[in-house]
Amino acid sequence: MTSAAPMIRLRGIRKSYGSHEVLKGIDLDVDQGRIVSIIGPSGSGKSTLLRSVNMLEEISHGEIWLDGVQVNSALTGRAFETHINRIRQQMGMVFQQFNLFPHLTALENVSIAPMKLKGKSKAEAEALARTLLEKVGLADKGGAYPARLSGGQKQRVAIARALAMQPKAMLFDEATSALDPELVDEVNLVMKQLAAEQMTMIIVTHEMRFAAEVSDHVLFMDGGVVVEQGPPEQVLKAPTQERTRGFLRKHLAQ
Amino acid sequence: MDVALIQRIAPFILEAALKTMQLAAASLAIGLAAAVALVAARMSRQAIWRGLSAAYVSVIRGTPLLVQLFLVFFGGPQLGLNLTPFQAGAITMGLNIGAYMSVGLHGAIIAVEHGQYEAARSLGFGRLDTMRLFILPQAAPLMLRTLGVNTVILTKGTALASTIGVVELTYSAQRFVTSTYKPFEVFAAAGIAYLIIILAIMLGIRGLESLFGTAERGRV
Ligand SMILES: Nc1ncnc2c1ncn2[C@@H]1O[C@H](COP(=O)(O)OP(=O)(O)O)[C@@H](O)[C@H]1O
Ligand SMILES: [Mg+2]
What we know:
By secondary structure, chain A is an alpha/beta fold. Chain A has helices at residues 46-53, 77-88, 106-117, 122-135, 151-163, 181-196, 208-214, 232-237, 242-253; strands at residues 8-17, 20-30, 35-39, 61-66, 69-70, 91-94, 169-173, 200-204, 217-222, 225-230.
């Protein structure tokens, strides 16, 4: 756990579905407190890459590291299960479709993981959950079931749920893509707040303006490779690659 | 229509109905155990278990229950398996309905959105915790429905056990027909007894559904 090592390190990540290679050797370092955005056309492999980080997708080749610990370790069977569960407890993930647990209230959605996985008492976990719901602006929604919440509220509960494990990093997969336009800002605001608190984040997004505002580093992916990367002012404002320019032109025209 | 006859045989019909219920209950217990084992195997990480589970279900569903009953009851002794008619009936029908139930239970599990599984795993929950805390509670209403339907099918199916000599409703009715020559009255009485049992089961399931229906709080 040397502080010099990046929080997240990806080396030579390759992933195939059958004969279709969707990630063709990706490297990425994300230092503690840094925010990396991944942009690119649909089907370019952004989600697959993000989901590889916590091994929701199994990669074919490469290495994944979190805070100096190899995520895709050589362990097998039960030992690997224990290892990966422990790793995942240190990484929060936010999904496009929220994936809140519909049979639990907002408060229970947030408190269940610290209670069951960290052995916190119910009172402790609920106090933590209340603090987090307040942080995402939903202090009064603890008793509500997901079906009663708007998309923006659901996504904020989902962020609070991930934060409840006090993760070392957060992974966002198009967190605002399923939202009505008027609900996007409330979620972006929470993400910016996390950024201000030095949370390490990888954000897959189709919102160029948000990426420009919040990121330290932007990755443009196409066809399973990183075509261009750098600070947002370079990749988004003065791209050197024709493919990046074409993508941004199309995206901004919409 | 000989109403007096129906009144006269009613106590015996009732007794036979109790036997039918016992047989159904025993089969149900065996069936539930078999179904849980089959679903667990079906969802195993080891291909061999998944294969065995699928093969078992195919064999059970691909052959008539009557043949399975004959195989176990008449064929069993050849292999040193000497079972009473009741035992043979309960075991065979339990193992039979278990296969059907496992298909329904597995269907209820995979009907839960995959995103639920991923959300739980991404938080660091293991496979069993994920199943127990998130998937099963959401699958419960559908599971209950499939268990209810199969329990009804099973209970009516116990009539087949009459063919291997279990003295349940249908068997008793047949005996009364030979002694009274009034098949209409006798089978009508037996039919009514079955109907009452089935209605009671359906009512029980309805009650359970309203109890567990709370898991269905609407989709995310
Ligand atoms: N489960 C899967 N099976 C087969 N192909 C898949 C699967 N998931 C994704 N893909 C393919 O992988 C490629 C990358 O997908 P994805 O990572 O979802 O792209 P993005 O998030 O950039 O839109 C696409 O061509 C997609 O069709
Ligand atoms: Mg995607």
